[in-house]
Design a protein that fits this description.
- The chain is of the alpha/beta class.
- It has a 7-stranded mixed β-sheet, sandwiched between helices.
- Helix 2 packs parallel to helix 8.
Length: 347
């Protein structure tokens, strides 16, 4: 795991007033879920199911697939490391820039890692996995659903891991598990953590081939998903829990933020189809901007320089409330203008 990836708000205590560094909406209404969990605190007095079969059945019913085609994990990250372990020593193709845990997990389990850039693909072993983050973190781009389906079906000798953790933060069409049950070389990763805005609970699942999932279950440690996370997952599914009141309005706000940032002289904003966006400073370093925003405005952004293939100029932000987004736009304009008395300290 690389330091500085994801939301590093834990390093700053009460200094952060507005958090743009996490790709999760920080103003989600979790009151109903919190109330339910408060009434179910007794579950921490007993072991949870060694394997989360109950939640897997609920998910299968919602998704229109069989329970053996679903495997619940402690966040998508546990799924990534289990898959890397199962296919120990294989070749892994990881287009960059993308989520760093794929590479970390693969290197931990002796994979031959290719970044799909200047490598000669024909020289890679036939035992090969393609790791595809879709929507992609940190760029926010989305690959065409039809093309994804075609590639998976026409290359059955390769394994495809498609991470759709941000599937609830885009309007683009993505792979549906019930439409891909004939693809025995496909594993789709899903994040309830992100779907329900509960990163502290660590809850995700894999859909795909029952044969591969059975092999992954054999590697999973018992009780890897804690009782409170399972209780939250069951409540969310049984009650159609929706912590973001209007996702369409939120995605509209994200698009507005993207357009507004792109209009600032001195910044290039990559096209995104999600609630987050990758930006590049024309001059200066992202770490300088991050520190300045934190000290002067209590704002936290994601320094994206530690993503493979990106340099020190890149940062990522996720849309929050309209007022907060406006404050971020103004603060970045102030930083770039050089008019702040603190500016020269960081430039």
């Amino acid at each position: 795991m690389i330091y500085g990836h994801g939301d590093d708000i834990y390093q700053y205590g009460n200094q952060v007033k507005m958090n743009f560094s996490s790709n999760i909406f920080t103003h989600a209404d979790l009151s109903q879920l919190k109330m339910h969990l408060a009434m179910r605190l007794d579950v921490i007095g007993s072991y949870p199911e060694p394997e989360p079969i109950t939640l897997e059945r609920l998910l299968a019913e919602k998704l229109g697939i069989q329970p053996q085609q679903v495997m619940v994990t402690a966040g998508a990250t546990e799924a990534i490391y289990l898959i890397a372990q199962l296919f120990k020593g294989w070749a892994s193709v990881i287009p960059q820039p993308t989520f760093g845990e794929y590479e970390d997990a693969c290197k931990q389990h002796d994979h031959v890692v290719s970044y799909f850039d200047n490598d000669t693909m024909e020289q890679l072993p036939e035992k090969r996995i393609y790791w595809l983050c879709n929507p992609n973190n940190p760029t926010g781009n989305v690959m065409v659903k039809g093309l994804m389906s075609y590639v998976v079906r026409h290359h059955p000798h390769f394994i495809y891991v498609v991470d759709q953790s941000y599937e609830n933060y885009t309007r683009k069409a993505l792979l549906l598990p019930r439409e891909m049950t004939d693809c025995h070389n496909l594993l789709i990763l899903h994040s309830m953590t992100k779907r329900y805005c509960v990163p502290g609970l660590r809850l995700g699942y894999i859909t795909g081939s029952p044969v591969i999932l059975d092999r992954l279950r054999a590697l999973r440690q018992p009780w890897s998903v804690n009782a409170m996370a399972l209780e939250a997952g069951k409540y969310a599914l049984e009650n159609d829990f929706e912590p973001i009141a209007d996702r369409e309005a939120y995605l509209d706000e994200a698009a507005r933020l993207q357009t507004s940032l792109a209009a600032i002289e001195g910044i290039t904003v990559m096209d995104s189809h999600t609630n987050f966006m990758l930006c590049r400073l024309d001059n200066g370093e992202a770490r300088q901007l991050k520190q300045w925003l934190l000290e002067n405005h209590g704002m936290l952004i994601r320094d994206a320089s530690n993503f493979h293939g990106l340099d020190s100029r890149y940062f990522r932000v996720a849309a929050q409330s309209r007022d907060e987004d406006n404050a971020l736009i103004e603060a970045i304009q102030e930083f770039l203008s050089g008019k702040s008395r603190h500016f020269t300290k960081y430039w």
